[in-house]
Amino acid sequence: MEKYLKVLRNCSLFRNIEESHLTKMLTCLGAKVESFDKKYTIIAEGNPAKYIGIMLSGSAQIIRMDYFGNRNIVSGIEVSETFCEAFACAEVKAVPVTIVATEPCEIMLIDCSHILHTCSNNCGFHQQLIFNLMKDLATKNIMFHQKIEITSKRSTREKLLSYLTFQAKKAGSNVFDIPFDRQELADYLEVDRSGLSAEISKLRAEGIIECRKNRFEILY
Amino acid sequence: MEKYLKVLRNCSLFRNIEESHLTKMLTCLGAKVESFDKKYTIIAEGNPAKYIGIMLSGSAQIIRMDYFGNRNIVSGIEVSETFCEAFACAEVKAVPVTIVATEPCEIMLIDCSHILHTCSNNCGFHQQLIFNLMKDLATKNIMFHQKIEITSKRSTREKLLSYLTFQAKKAGSNVFDIPFDRQELADYLEVDRSGLSAEISKLRAEGIIECRKNRFEILY
DNA sequence: CTCCGTTTGTTGAAAATTCAACAGACTTAT
DNA sequence: ATAAGTCTGTTGAATTTTCAACAAACGGAG
Q1: Chain A residues 121-180, Cβ below 7 A from strand C
Q2: Which of B116, B130, B134 sits opposite A89 (nearest CB)?
Q3: What is the domain class of B2-144 according to CATH?
Q4: What DSSP letter does each residue of A113-148 carry, written as one string?
Q5: Measured between CB atoms, does B167 come within 8 Å of chain A?
Q6: Chain A residues within 8 A of B87 when measuring between CB atoms
Q7: pTM of the complete model
Q8: What pLDDT is attached to residue A61?
Q9: Angle between helices A126-151 and A156-171 (to 10 degrees)
């Protein structure tokens, strides 16, 4: 576990928990680590929602397929971020989404019931973990509000500009990389890929944005 | 406060808290009650995100206006439900949505910092409240997943059927009332009102649904 | 370096959504 | 009961998105 400590220190779930206690605590929680190759399914829709996931290395996406094969990308998952905690905490029977690796990755899985219910060892970390979970869930909630703000726009152009503005703000710069290729961005914005490409071209021609691959710049 | 106890008992925030303790606790938390007439703004976008709201009577909606006056309805708020807890818990500076009364209503406001940080009286309820908040935020998270599942559909027909199916499941019956008029439903589904009306008519003509005002039936 | 598979941009046609306008049904207030 | 105002369904035209197909650009493997 030692080699993951640097990542775990940045994980919202372990905020205000001393690094020296972390290893012991992970043992107590029964944390386990698994590896996946690119494109592999980490958690499949319908799986029991027992585990909180933490991305240790690599990246993944939260996706949902509808019955006609249309992919919707709910969100990307980067190193040190958590996933599936809402399903585990709300104690739903099955996960309604699929988690797919976009790079080779390692993830940590923690059985949520070990966090929610005091363990026999009485480690005393539970209160802090529950507080951290609460904060994390609140932050995820706000992320959904932002996603809805973006995707509730009625046109491809507005969705795209809205998304790029958010990314620029997040990066603190008018030049920034996005974690999606064109098809993925279309599936995130809930629009047609070719229409999205056309819209990007139009915005370039109008001098509003510039882009090369995944690097965008907002010119205004 | 006594007259609100029946409502508060059903509020997820106070689960597993003895009713006999509730009144004292509300005093300790500095809970206050406010009333609003239909159509009034309960919390305006940009307000500081200090308070957790609880709907005591009546109903409201969480809405967001974009810069061209398009209304997006994020969610309805019914009696005993909480609202704005995510913004308060995540300690963002300003609320990014507007809460508008859809009926005359009474709401309870609790300063979130009183829940998050132990008070001088050491009431001891904080741990349970934080646990309840965590559960509540997880549930809200799942609600967002459902809303995204609905609105990520590409056509008006699919959004509508997806929404109605969810409502039927929630009501546990193929006949159910929805909390929106046509314009509100359109703003919730992120589609055009006249297109929505046309789609409802088509589904009736095809014998797939039946409806009279806000009461729908799925025939299948 | 070349080949092969994937990603991206472009196009035009088909389909769907949006928009504006209106008439009838329904509600509310007087 | 009447009148004024709101909500709903319908229409057709304008706009936008989707879809399918293809070629150019790109990237990785051998």
Answers
A1: 154
A2: B134
A3: mainly beta
A4: HHHHS--TT--S-HHHHHHHHHHHHHHHHHHHHHHH
A5: no
A6: 138, 142
A7: 0.95
A8: 97
A9: 140
Length of chain B: 220
For B130, which of A70, A131, A190 is closest by C-beta distance? A131
CA-based angle B44:B49:B54, to the nearest 5? 80
Non-local (6+) Cβ contacts of B127 within 8 A are A127, A130
Write out the residue limits of the CATH 1.10.10.10 domain(s) in chain A. Answer: 153-218
All CATH 2.60.120.10 domain ranges of chain A, comma separated, are 2-144
The third-level CATH classification (topology) of the domain covering A153-218 is Arc Repressor Mutant, subunit A (1.10.10)
Nucleotides of D under 7 A from a protein CB: 7-12, 16-21, 27
- Within 7 Å: CB of A27 and strand C? no
Instruction: State the CB neighbour count (10 A cutoff) for residue A168.
Output: 16
Among the listed ranges A68-72, A180-184, B15-19, B157-161, which one has the minimum average pLDDT value?
A68-72
Chain B closest CA to A71's CA: distance in Å? Answer: 10
Q: What is the mean pLDDT of each run of 10 residues along chain B (220 residues)?
A: 89 93 90 94 96 97 87 96 98 96 96 82 76 97 97 96 97 96 97 97 96 93
pLDDT, position B70: 84
Report the b/e string of B90-107 with b at 16+ CB within 10 A.
Answer: bebeebebbbbbbeebbb
The pair of three-digit structure tokens given for residue B206, joined into one six-digit string: 């095809």
